[in-house]
């Protein structure tokens, strides 16, 4: 929704460390930079989801040292490391892959509670086995059961609503 990639990066400046921005800005043209931005974003989001916190977490507290710089589609990588408040976090493993030319996936695996073993030690993955299965909408809803009978009046009411909210005058409070 931004007018340009540089403007989008300016808006998102505080979400990444200077080191991360250095890598993002060094990878080539704007589309490659945006691709690297999305990779870092997937990594940060995976960590926040793993620890169960939301957007209030200061993303500059976590810094990723990505490796390798380029990810091959369909291959799972575990080389990327994370620093939390400047200290290297050995307890965390990040599995990354590219689903295709436009989509990064990152999964944060931390130390299992009550165990000295990490998730990555427990799960052995066959590198030749596909790690993700792409599902269609039909696949997802095939076993779905309606929780209520269909109500066509509800649908008609929903469809009659405006597409987006109307901007209100800031003086009318």
From TrEMBL:
Its EC number is 2.7.8.7. Residues 7-107 form the 4'-phosphopantetheinyl transferase domain. The keyword Transferase applies. It catalyses: apo-[ACP] + CoA = holo-[ACP] + adenosine 3',5'-bisphosphate + H(+); apo-[ACP] + acetyl-CoA = acetyl-[ACP] + adenosine 3',5'-bisphosphate + H(+). Keywords: Transferase. It holds the Pfam family ACPS. It comes from the Eukaryota. The keyword Isomerase does not apply. This is L-aminoadipate-semialdehyde dehydrogenase-phosphopantetheinyl transferase. It comes from Alca torda (Razorbill). The lineage of its organism: Eukaryota, Metazoa, Chordata, Craniata, Vertebrata. The gene is Aasdhppt.
